[in-house]
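Reopening: structure tokens for the adenosine-5'-diphosphate complex, inputs below.
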Amino acid sequence: MRRKRLLWQLYPSYLLITLVSLLAITLYSSRVIRRFHLEQTMTDLESRAHLIQEDIRERLVAGQPDRTDLLCKELGDKSSTRITVILPDGKVTGDTEKPPAEMDNHAGRPEIIEAMAGGTGSSVRFSHTLGQDVAYVAISVEDGDKIVGVVRTSIPLAAINRAMTDIYLRIAAGGLIVALLVAVVSMFVSRRISRPLEEIKRGAERFARGDLGHKLATTNCWEIAALAETLNRMVAQIEKLENVRRDFVANVSHELRTPITSIKGYVETLLDGAMHSPDDAQRFLQIITIQTNRLGAIIDDLLALSRIEQKAGNAEILLQRGRIKHVLEAAIDASQSKFLESNIQIECFCGQELEALINAPLLEQAVANLIDNACKYSPPGATVQIEASRTETEVIIRVKDHGCGIDQQHLPRIFERFYRVDKARSRKLGGTGLGLAIVKHIAEAHAGRVMVGSIPGRGSTFSICLPAV
Ligand code: ADP
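Re-run output (same inputs, fresh job):
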């Protein structure tokens, strides 16, 4: 598709619309003026006919029709009007232009027929006598009830046309000035519309080049300002995501590096001779195994996270109506080794019938992660309660422990990847720092959310809230 600049789409259409309307108005007003002018001329001709009507009547009644010719010639010359006097039988007895004897019988002329019928006749037609278009008005001259003749006044249309040409020229000149004004103003208006868009385009190009620090200026046009603000917000979001990505890469590298450095150190120590001491070799290889398992755990969690993210992004996470109780029991089963190890009591409170739209394996993983944490951060012999209930709008699964708790300041960031309150402790407990991030992603994949409440020294409660069905 051929692309045209906005300016060249707006400007010609503005111009075309105004020029067409200008032309239409000019043509229409010219016609109106012409008609008005013609009507004016007709009334004028009629008044002139009335002015001489009396003189003509006197002569006709006196039986001196011949004397009307002189009058016609004299008055006609003075008033630039052709005056003709016609007798009831159609014979012309007086005319401004010609000797009456040379003229045809006028009984058949439309304006004469109308006047003879007792009124005013008018007609615009070609005159054979003058060889051009002429406007005629005729009135009857009466003596009592009897029509004794007709006075006709006429003027060539050329005179009207001359006047009209003058008016047309003025209208055309006015139109031309207006058209020029319109051309300038619509250029101005088009530019006013297209310029902010061009600025946004230039700004967007800067964004595309990677200059995310640039901000688009807003304008006073609502839609364009909204567009600029949306683009600015979008770029801020991209910037944020870019930072998250950068931090994430740095964090992952750092997290992987620690066990690798440790493994490398012990392997080198072994090669340097420690492998010849069976005790040292045994100890170091055990440490290497632990570090290798940590690497494996980090990578497993990372893969789990990215799978959830990817599937959620492609809307591939299938949600089905399912019983919450089954999910909780499966999660408890999966975490069994953890709580038996530290002698933790698990209590589960969940209605048999409680249901929600869930992806059972994912939700089970999320609850298991919470149970693992509750066990990890509770003293041996403590109790962990798992309960599920529903409100009007949500099904809430709570995992409540009576462990060390979390300081208020950490709560807002606790669900971030690799965020740990106490790094050394988490590592010692085999944590990857990704457990809660996975829980949050799973909750979001269910269109739900996560919450945490904690009192240091007393314990924490983690909640997964899912939309109720
Ligand atoms: P980790 O693998 O380190 O446990 P998580 O993402 O599961 O990573 O948790 C992040 C951090 O949140 C933990 O390092 C820990 O400091 C804190 N945390 C999580 N659960 C609890 C809990 N039940 N009690 C106290 N602190 C917790």
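DSSP finds eleven helices and twelve strands in the chain. The CA atoms of residues 290 and 430 lie 9 Å apart. Marking as resolved unless the reporter disagrees.
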